[in-house]
Amino acid sequence: MLVLGSANTDVVLAVPAVPAAGETVLATGMARHPGGKGLNQAVAAARAGARTAFLGAVGDDEAGEALARVLADDGVDVALLRRVAEPTGTAHIAVQDDGDNAIVVAPGANGTLVELTDTDLAAVGAARVLVAQLEVPLAGVLAAAIAARAAGTTVVLNAAPAAALPPDLLAVVDVLVVNEHEAAVVAGEHGEPEVLAARLLELVPAVVITLGGAGALHAARDGERGLTPAPVARVVDTTGAGDTATGVLAARLAGGLPLAGAVRRAVVAGSLAVETAGAVPSIPTAAQVDARLADTAP
Predict the structure, then answer these.
(1) H-helix segments, 49-200
(2) How far does the chain reach from its first CA to its final CA, in angstroms?
């Protein structure tokens, strides 16, 4: 499978509560971690057992080299990772005491992924599954998705950060992955998850709506519906949990697992991810997901 997306350095600040507009708070700690939705999802897919390639861009700087090593150390193919003149992307993340967070991203090098090369498009077409998000330019995402559809590659789109999506992109998405807020933005209306899922099925063949600690709802045009509860977790940091779930979902789809089974593993992986600080450090292995599944089996 191939992940098209962002790679960032995460600067994580521990705070009693995320500041409101005009408010200053003192952090009780600071840490730096590898991150970015694309990098997180690629590492999650690789740790889930999928052969994974990453298409992205980092700066020709120390931070970019560090992120390339993180991907390679997890077995992700970085042959398509570009080094560019722009600085490596950075995410500033405030994590409050209950684990919830607020994030500001400076895209940097990620913003250069506007056009894809013939080599990039050939790699997309050779993959079983393409995963993309919205922390890189929409033009690059659209080009990849169109190439994937033409080649019979399954397109998994994580519509995050939240944005209204153009019809030509929605027309080539196979599985849309969103949280409740993102679902409302894409659907163009508010409502309960079941209502949003029904609306989104008018736009794409299948949808997965993540519900935080409540698990995930999935639905498909063939009539399949399901609500997968999440195991009880000790929440430390929710950063990257959604990316973990998306990466594992895509990896299991690439491995031939039906949607319901892929969602089950994704939800369990996401529940494990919130129990450790940092995005990449919190991503579980396939063995850890297996163990949690065994613990929660009826």
Answers:
(1) 62-73, 118-126, 138-151, 167-170, 180-187, 193-200
(2) 32
Helix (H) or strand (E) holding 156: strand 154-158
With a CB cutoff of 8 Å and minimum separation 6, the contacts of 144 are 4, 55, 116, 120, 121, 124, 130, 132
Q: Which residues contact 11 (CB under 8 A, 6 or more apart)?
A: 30, 31, 32, 90, 91, 92, 93
- Token pair belonging to 72: 């390679």
State pLDDT tens for residues 172-190.
999 999 999 999 999 999 9
Residue 153, judged by CB atoms within 10 A of its CB (0-12, 13-18, 19+), counts as: buried
Catalytic residue among 73, 222, 243, 295: 243
Q: ω before 229 within 30° of 0 (cis)?
A: no
CA distances from residue 281 to 180, 245, 262 in whole angstroms, order as listed: 25, 14, 22
pLDDT tens, residue by residue, 57-82: 999 999 999 999 999 999 999 999 99
The radius of gyration of the chain from alpha carbons, rounded to an integer in Å, stands at 18
Q: Which residue has the tokens 């690439």?
A: 254
Tell whether the model's pLDDT for residue 50 goes beyond 80.
yes
Q: Which domain holds residue 259?
A: 2-19+28-296
**Domain total for the chain?**
1
Token pair of 63 as six digits: 């931070």
What CATH code is carried by the domain that includes residue 205? 3.40.1190.20
Residue bearing tokens 């309960």: 192
- 295 flagged as catalytic: no
Query: From CA 121, how far away is CA 35, in angstroms rounded?
Result: 24
